Amino acid sequence: MNGLLGRELVVLAGKGGVGRTTTAAAVGVVASERGARTIVVEVGEQARVPALLGARPAELGETVRLTPSLAAMTIDPDRALLRWLQKVGGRAAGRLLASSSTFQYFAAAAPGARELVVMVAIWQLTAASPERGEHFDLVVVDAPASGHALAMLGSPATFGSIARVGPIAHHSEEVTRLLGDELRSGYLAVTLADEMAVTETLELRDALAAKLGRDLDGVIVNQLLPRRFSDSELERAEALRPRGATASAVRAAVRAARDVETRARTQQSHLRRLRASGLDVVTVPFLWSEEVGREEVDAIAARLARRLAS
Known about the structure:
- By secondary structure, the chain is of the alpha/beta class.
- It is about 55% helix and about 15% strand.
- The longest helix has 30 residues, at about 245-275.
- The radius of gyration is 23 Å and the shape is elongated.
């Protein structure tokens, strides 16, 4: 993960439910604390990063300032496509599209168009050009779940091979150049230490190589349970024959300890599988919190800081 925070774009991908958004927020915190003007971009209709960091809810497409050097934005693909069509075709055409079913017909007839304009919007955040508004040193992207993320990342090359001239060709070329440049962009997988998530991470690595000729710069493994007990310690605990009012509580505690230890050992086996593949892996311990907020994001950021900043 060396030098990752010195690039213009870092994309975080992984299956749903692995803590991708929280991790993206933590990466943004690390980068901003090291002086980089950073924006964390979510793709979809939910704006979760501002809430994680204790800020007000954000409108889709709005830049929300979280700290002097950290911002957040949510890009909705439908809205991004409509804005792009308005810019290319003019306001009148945009109003016509927005007020009829034409827009949906167009989007359906041009698969990948939504993904392309999202990537263009992300690229524009990195571009030091006054007409594009504020730009950032680093754009951290909380990409959609793995399959959709790959479609999004592959869309510029797809459209670039079709369109030879005009704004689509220009934008596709610029984004493709950014995504393929190891000095400007990087890719992180976020996963859990379970069989399905690890398998999807390895598949993501292969697909990223096939589509972009790039490898994962690293893998962040969330919610890793600690190893607390040896076999002999668990055997001694299970041999106890407690009596009295606390007996049931003691037996329940012993069962819980065994269950957690079994799960922790299973996680370690999946972790070894990731490391055996040659990937650079950093682990984040399980956070014993009912809700995830700023304190938890900061804890993850502190865990990632040394590896990301090295």
